[in-house]
């Protein structure tokens, strides 16, 4: 497996380039900003990009999508419930005093438990709403990793004060879908450093019994 993490843009969002060495096929997950830097990283991996996948459609995760679609002419996929928020990207940006360029469109949907094959890699979608509508995590069981989007971070969890957010729903997503994964699973989040499921199960203050919530 090839896995590159690039931290991009003013929100320090983690974009991932993930692919299968053998077949040379790859995907870009959450290209939030800095399209030129992402495509340079892709070039260095030698991967051929077949798809762009979105964990959710907050502006900090989608800013470079349109430019990369121009470059790779590849489809963009996300959960169906993320589509409305994607269309509202300019409004989301405006509320943060920013401008959003071209709004990308989705070419297809990823359902809960759907497996996206990337060469020999199998990315299984875990529907994990609560931070944003239609939020997905992507689990690669064979490699013992999960891309957790903005649901779970090292020592924290996603914010729930944006439209469609709910702490109750988020905690259920984390407990039932993410903490169901083995402790050794490495967690690559939408922001901040990597961690593991075991580390978060043990030490994340939001997940401890009798914790903050
Ligand atoms: Zn987000
Ligand atoms: Zn984010």
Overview of the molecule:
This protein has 213 residues and is α/β, with parallel strands linked by helices. It has a single domain (2-203), classed as 4-Layer Sandwich (Metallo-beta-lactamase, Chain A). 25% of the residues lie in helices and 29% in strands. The protein has helices at residues 35-45, 59-62, 65-72, 83-87, 89-95, 167-178, 197-203, and strands at residues 2-8, 13-20, 25-29, 48-53, 76-78, 108-109, 115-118, 121-127, 136-140, 145-149, 152-153, 156-157, 186-189, 195-196. The strands form three sheets. A six-stranded mixed β-sheet has the order 1-2-3-4-5-6, covered by helices on one side. The chain has a six-stranded mixed β-sheet with strand order 7-8-9-10-13-14. The chain has a two-stranded antiparallel sheet with strand order 11-12. The protein is globular. The N and C termini lie far apart (37 Å). The mean pLDDT is 96. The protein binds zinc ion (2 copies).
């Amino acid at each position: 497996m090839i896995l590159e993490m690039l931290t991009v843009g003013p929100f320090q969002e983690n974009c991932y380039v993930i692919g299968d060495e053998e077949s040379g096929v790859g995907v870009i997950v959450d290209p939030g900003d800095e399209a030129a830097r992402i495509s340079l990283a892709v070039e260095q991996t030698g991967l051929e990009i077949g798809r762009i996948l979105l964990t959710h459609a907050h502006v900090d995760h989608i800013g470079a999508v349109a430019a990369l679609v121009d470059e790779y002419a590849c489809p963009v996929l996300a959960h169906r419930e993320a589509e409305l928020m994607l269309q509202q990207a300019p409004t989301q940006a405006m509320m943060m005093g920013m401008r959003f360029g071209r709004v990308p469109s989705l070419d297809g949907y990823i359902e809960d438990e759907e497996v996206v094959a990337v060469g020999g890699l199998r990315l299984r979608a875990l529907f994990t709403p609560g931070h944003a509508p239609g939020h997905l995590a992507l689990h690669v069981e064979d490699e013992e990793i999960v891309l957790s989007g903005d649901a779970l971070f090292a020592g924290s969890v996603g914010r729930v004060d944006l439209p469609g957010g709910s702490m109750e729903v988020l905690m259920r997503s984390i407990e039932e879908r993410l903490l169901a994964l083995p402790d050794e699973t490495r967690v690559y989040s939408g922001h901040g450093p990597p961690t593991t499921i075991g580390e978060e199960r043990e030490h994340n203050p939001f997940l401890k019994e009798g914790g903050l919530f």
